[in-house]
Amino acid sequence: MTTKSAAEHPSLHLGHSMKPRQLTMMGLGSAIGAGLFLGSGAGIQAAGPAVLVSYLVAGTLIIIVMWALGEMAAANPTSGAFSVYAEKALGKTAGATVGWLWWLQLVVVIAAEALGAAGLLFTIWPVVPVWALSLVFMAVFTAINLAGVRNFGEFEFWFAILKVVAILLFLAIGTALLLGWLPEVPSPGLSNLTADFAPAGLGGIATALFVVIFAFGGTEIVSVAAAETEDPERSVGHAIRTVVWRILVFYIGSVFVIAAVLPSTSDALKSPFAGVLDLARIPGAGAAITLVAVVALLSALNANLYGASRMAFSLSQRGEAPAFLSRLNKARVPVAAVSISVAFGFLAAVLELLFPEQILPALFQLVGSTCLVVWGSALVSQLILRRRADREGTALPLRMRGFPAITIFGLVLLALIFAVGFSSPDSSKQLFSTLALIAAMAAASWLGTRFGKARRGAN
Predict the structure, then answer these.
(1) Are 325 and 340 spatial neighbours (Cβ–Cβ below 8 Å)?
(2) Got the DSSP string for 175-242?
(3) Can you tell me whether residue 356 is helix, strand or coil?
(4) Cα dihedral 149, 246, 173, 125 sign
(5) What one-character DSSP code corresponds to residue 134?
(6) Could you tell me the pTM of the whole model?
(7) What is the pLDDT of residue 453?
């Protein structure tokens, strides 16, 4: 690990105007989106209340991954983040494969969040069709991302604040409902949790686990944004610590309330937050939380578009993507990288017009297991780079405690998740598809590097 990235071309630099508070809230913004407001209902339908086990397992893993990423990002703040770290630890092919895999994951998530937000808004304002709303959202947030990182960061900060306040209010109302404190509203008690905790058994928990992993995906964007943050060595550590515990409280607390109030067979799980508030009989609360959910998804879209464009920018600077993707405008924004990252979102809106209500479920299934591969690469990279730094006597501004035991535990936990995933027919298909995609990306990257060397040698 080094304190300055040597992987990116020195003549092309992103700005450094993002503030630490914006970095922290971006981490929340990218993670509190479709996975929580829509995916939580899907997880409960798959596993019943046992989805809490899935959240605890995935939550433990993301804590370890974020600690590992924090150590590497503080030492080497770069827009390529874990892709650069994988390149330093495992070679160019690994770095490029991880970078493109994460970029593809975010591109799909961006489309899912635009469609999800449009679908939720349509439930309370059925005037403009879902596909048209999705197109509008994509256009607006493309413009916001092109305006410069300072404006983007401030926009994301206030978006995330709104989400945090709304979730805290939801937890307060849900707790009051469960404890019977709401007047003339009977408490559902904990019967939904105790009557049939795991109706689908281990297979349901495995299926839900990949929905949950999708929900936590995007948290790692903090390590990408470190490259454009003031004083990254200090900012990253604070952001990592703050983001991790808040996400766990918000996710596990919210899912506990939803699973306790709504049975796993309830149709209200399609919009679980609104379903809980409707049962609480608070006038207008269901519509209000739906609007907050729309804002949450758009906030996550905003953050993920930022992350995808910066990864494409980094890949371009390292010769793993076309050179035009690293060109910056006057606001120090990689315009072409933003444009290609948002293109699939516009395509998904058109597909929604052609195949109504079929695109969003397909997008959820596509990216669940890619998060596991990215997280695994981060843990392996940190294991190698930390040992290398210790061997060479390199001082690190932020050191992960409990190394190497905690990193190894994270890798063991990851291996167990893969084993459980392969035991379920539904998740095993997703895993095999992801492995095939990785193999194709790795082969393309290796061939591209080899032909690039051959051309340079011929010249």
Answers:
(1) yes
(2) HHHHTT-STT----TTHHHHH-S-TTHHHHHHHHHHHHHHHHTTTTHHHHHGGGBSSHHHHHHHHHHH
(3) coil
(4) positive
(5) H
(6) 0.86
(7) 62
